[in-house]
């Protein structure tokens, strides 16, 4: 029987998980609450005169049931309407629980388009690859104690009814709109960022702002390693500036704990915008100087003025991944080096490297003796391409990298792929 990797995790990641995803029903102001830690995302409730409004509905029907039970502790009024801040699955998949079998308004941006629900089966797209990489990013199938965090939510949360409770939106908005939430004045604000269809919800009388996933307590996920279309960095930064200009006193994000106090809200929005702009400038300057994307990604770091901000820790997004995404999103895959206009297959490259090193035995020795785990992974890839049984060595290197990794999605991916390699029945 395969021995499980012992649970060792980066202490900063563990602290982030414990402080940002502790199950809590947080009162934002009279009549407004946020549910944190019950699902990958947060859910919000606004109490009106006769009904309540729910903003975002979690990724599963079971999580939605748990949240609704919490909401019922503070209000027995029926849900009169649902608002989707955007179309990601973890925000739209528990709606049927909150509607309780009734037809109610479901509000969203006119650009609403889920990347995981309602896909055209005949479309030419790598859906299996997306599914596989999504499982890796979120550690689906790992033991709950191994999946210590999702970066955006708790690793241990209900999985029953994943994606099962989605209700398509039936009221769409293509511009900023003032609306009445059963006696509560609100404004829907088009704010593209993590997705193009992002719609923030602003309560001007109580100065509470729901930004969706345009802000959370982690470095922004400017590129998701599961695989996503280009996320417009500039639009995201502009939306943060727009939201900062509202002067909110409470910020209730789509993930992590709310932020209280106008000065604190302003600081987290301003510094997050600065972080995005810094990655853009660093990458653009490097490309203008003719640097490789590898070198640009290897040298990106936040400036000292904001680097110590705890909400910019790389628990979910990562600056180096973001630099690669910005380079590809603005100029495409070609990095300006004519060498890369041609292509070697994985096997051909491995054969050339083995010949240069003095054969496969030399690659094995190099992999076994190097202290650089990233280099060990790369050598293992060459060995595997040559048909050598290096899968176990690669799996163990990934487990060691996972132990030190502060980024939850990188940790989950290392462990998920290590488990996949070990399941192949590789001999000791």
Overall pLDDT score? 94
**Percentage of residues in helical conformation:** 25-40%
Shape: globular
Largest sheet: 7 strands, mixed
N- to C-terminal distance: 12 Å
Q: What is the β-strand count?
A: 13
CATH superfamily of the domain at 339-422: Alkyl sulfatase, dimerisation domain
The CATH level-2 architecture of the domain at 339-422 is identified as Alpha Horseshoe
Alpha-carbon Rg, integer:
23 Å
* DSSP helical segment count: 15
Strands in their spatial order, largest beta sheet: 1-2-3-4-5-6-7
CATH level 1 class label of the domain at 339-422: Mainly Alpha
Strand content: 5-15%
CATH topology of the domain at 339-422: Serine Threonine Protein Phosphatase 5, Tetratricopeptide repeat
Describe the structure using short key phrases.
428 residues; 13% strand; alpha/beta; 13 strands; Serine Threonine Protein Phosphatase 5, Tetratricopeptide repeat; 6-stranded mixed β-sheet; 7-stranded mixed β-sheet; single chain
Lay out the secondary structure.
Layout: H1 11-20, E1 24-29, E2 32-36, E3 43-47, E4 52-55, H2 61-71, E5 79-83, H3 89-92, H4 95-99, E6 106-109, H5 127-137, E7 171-173, E8 177-180, E9 185-190, E10 199-203, E11 208-210, H6 233-244, E12 250-251, E13 259-260, H7 262-288, H8 293-299, H9 304-307, H10 319-331, H11 346-357, H12 360-369, H13 373-385, H14 391-404, H15 408-422
Parallel strand pairs: 4-5, 5-6, 6-7, 11-12
Antiparallel strand pairs: 1-2, 2-3, 3-4, 8-9, 9-10, 10-11, 12-13
Helix pairs in contact: 5-15, 6-7, 7-8, 7-10, 8-10, 11-13, 12-13, 13-14, 14-15
């Amino acid at each position: 029987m395969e021995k499980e990797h012992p649970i060792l995790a980066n202490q900063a990641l563990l602290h982030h998980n414990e402080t940002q995803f502790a199950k809590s029903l947080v009162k934002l102001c009279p009549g407004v609450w946020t549910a944190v830690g019950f699902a990958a995302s947060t859910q919000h409730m606004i109490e009106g005169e006769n009904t309540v409004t729910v903003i975002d509905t979690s990724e599963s029907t079971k999580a939605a049931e748990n949240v609704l039970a919490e909401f019922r502790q503070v209000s027995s009024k029926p849900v009169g309407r649902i608002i989707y801040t955007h179309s990601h699955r973890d925000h739209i998949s528990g709606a049927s629980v909150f509607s309780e079998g009734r037809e109610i308004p479901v509000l969203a941006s006119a650009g609403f388009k889920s990347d995981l629900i309602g896909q055209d089966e005949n479309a030419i797209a790598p859906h299996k690859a997306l599914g596989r990489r999504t499982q890796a990013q979120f550690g689906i199938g790992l033991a709950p104690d191994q999946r210590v965090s999702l970066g955006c939510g708790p690793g241990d949360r209900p999985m029953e009814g994943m994606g099962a409770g989605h209700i398509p939106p039936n009221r769409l908005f293509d511009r900023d709109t003032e609306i009445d939430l059963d006696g509560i004045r609100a404004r829907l604000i088009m704010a593209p960022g993590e997705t193009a269809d992002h719609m923030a919800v602003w309560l001007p009388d109580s100065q509470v702002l729901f930004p969706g996933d345009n802000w959370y307590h982690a470095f922004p996920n400017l590129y998701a390693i599961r695989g996503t279309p280009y996320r417009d960095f500039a639009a995201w930064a502009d939306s943060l500036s727009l939201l900062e200009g509202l002067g909110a006193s409470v910020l209730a994000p789509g993930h992590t704990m709310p932020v209280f106090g106008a000065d604190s809200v302003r600081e987290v929005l301003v510094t997050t915008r600065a972080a995005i702009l810094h990655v853009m400038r660093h990458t653009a300057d490097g490309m203008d100087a003719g640097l490789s994307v590898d070198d640009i990604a290897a040298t990106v770091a936040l400036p000292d003025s904001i680097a110590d901000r705890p909400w910019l820790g790389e628990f979910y997004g990562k600056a180096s991944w973001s630099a690669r995404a910005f380079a590809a999103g603005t100029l495409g895959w070609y990095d300006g080096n004519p060498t890369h206009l041609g292509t070697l297959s994985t096997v051909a490259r491995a054969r050339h490297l083995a010949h240069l090193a003095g054969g496969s035995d030399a690659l094995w020795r190099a992999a076994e003796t190097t202290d650089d785990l990233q280099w060990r992974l790369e050598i293992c890839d060459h060995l595997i391409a040559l048909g050598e049984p290096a899968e176990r060595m690669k799996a163990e290197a990934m487990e060691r990298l996972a132990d030190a990794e502060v980024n939850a999605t990188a940790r989950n991916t290392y462990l998920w792929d290590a488990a996949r390699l070990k399941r192949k029945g590789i001999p000791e």
